[in-house]
Amino acid sequence: MDLILHVWRQAGPADKGRIERYEAKGVNPDSSFLEMLDVVNEGLAERGVEPIAFEHDCREGICGSCGFMINGVAHGGMHRTTVCQLHMRHFKDGDELWIEPWRAKAFPVVKDLVVSRTAFDRIVQSGGFISVNTGSAPEANLTPVPKSLADRAFDAAECIACGACVAQCPNGAAQLFTSAKMSHLNLLPQGQPERYERALSMVEAMEREGFGACSNYTECEGVCPKGISVDFIARMNRDYLNAKGKGELKTPMKT
Ligand code: SF4
Ligand code: FES
Predict the structure, then answer these.
(1) Which one-letter DSSP state was computed for residue 130?
(2) Is the four-CA dihedral 10, 210, 122, 242 of positive or negative sign?
(3) Pocket-testing residue among 37, 56, 87, ligand 2, by greatest number of atoms within 8 A of Cβ
(4) d(Cα 100, Cα 92) in Å, to the nearest integer?
């Protein structure tokens, strides 16, 4: 199949950037979107043109490195699919595709389709871990965890930190990511001692990074390749309000 690609090219953070048009001819329908770009890049390199920069690592939908907008939809719009797992058979011969980086103030463009997601790292650094002593492996096995809670925590832990939720949100909000990274700890017994401190510090770190506010558009859940539910945002808000003494627990919760 033959495709027309309109790709965002930006040499660096200071460059204004522009859309450039490329023809992708003879695309194998069984190749992935990134493999299609690899072939386009080989052609560009042969012509002495700088290849299109994009992030990738596992190409198996598990590492969270890849991601960009295709025709205005994060990861291209296939249900629960990262762009590395999106295959060209889902497009039609002659399609025109507009390929752009994540657009969010907190994710500045580094080059072409690559953005900096270090804001996510700083949110996790602020509390996305357990620092209390949880004992050794035998003790962990003696701590009962209800199956329903273990399953919920695992659902949240599926977040791969790709950033699609932020990119698709009209507000550029990071609530889905932050709530997932908080909930997989706050749901488990080992996460309880620091639960409210974690809620405070992660929400405040998120706000410092310049992400927008959540207005319940739920666009984030719609594009999330791991199906992270907006229910986790409600859970995060409850923990945050309780930490401030403004929720059901009227006394501010401290660890
Ligand atoms: S919540 Fe989903 S879309 Fe957002 S960073 Fe995690 S995996 Fe990506
Ligand atoms: S390259 Fe790892 S999730 Fe896409």
Answers:
(1) -
(2) negative
(3) 56
(4) 20
d(CA 191, CA 149): 12
Distance in angstroms (rounded) separating the CA atoms of residues 58 and 65? 8
Task: Indicate which residue's Cα is closest to atom 7 of ligand 1.
Answer: 159
Of all ligands present, the nearest one to the C-alpha of 226 is 1
Nearest atom in ligand 2 to the alpha carbon of residue 59 is 1
Report the percent of the chain where pLDDT is more than 90. 91
Q: For residue 200, report the phi and psi dihedrals to the nearest 5 degrees.
A: -60, -50
CA angle 23, 85, 167 (to 5 degrees): 80
Encode pLDDT of 57-103 as tens digits: 999 999 999 999 999 999 999 999 999 999 999 999 999 999 999 99
- CA distances to 65, 66, 153, 206 from 122, rounded to whole Å, are 17, 19, 21, 8
**Cβ of residue 164 lying under 6 Å from some atom of ligand 1:** yes
Residue 72 sits at φ, ψ, to 5 deg, of 80, 5
Residue 206 near residue 178, CB atoms below 8 Å: yes
pLDDT tens digits, residue range 21-46? 999 999 999 999 999 999 999 999 99
Considering the entire predicted model, what is its pTM? 0.96
Compute, in angstroms, the gap from residue 211 CA to the centroid of ligand 1: 14
Q: Which residue has the tokens 């700083």?
A: 122
213: exposed, middle or buried (C-beta count within 10 Å: 0-12, 13-18, 19+)?
exposed
Which of 39, 45, 42, 57 minimizes the C-alpha distance to 1?
A: 39
162 touches ligand 1 (CB under 6 Å): yes
Q: Which of 228, 229, 231, 235 to mutate to test the pocket of ligand 1 (most atoms within 8 A of CB)?
A: 228
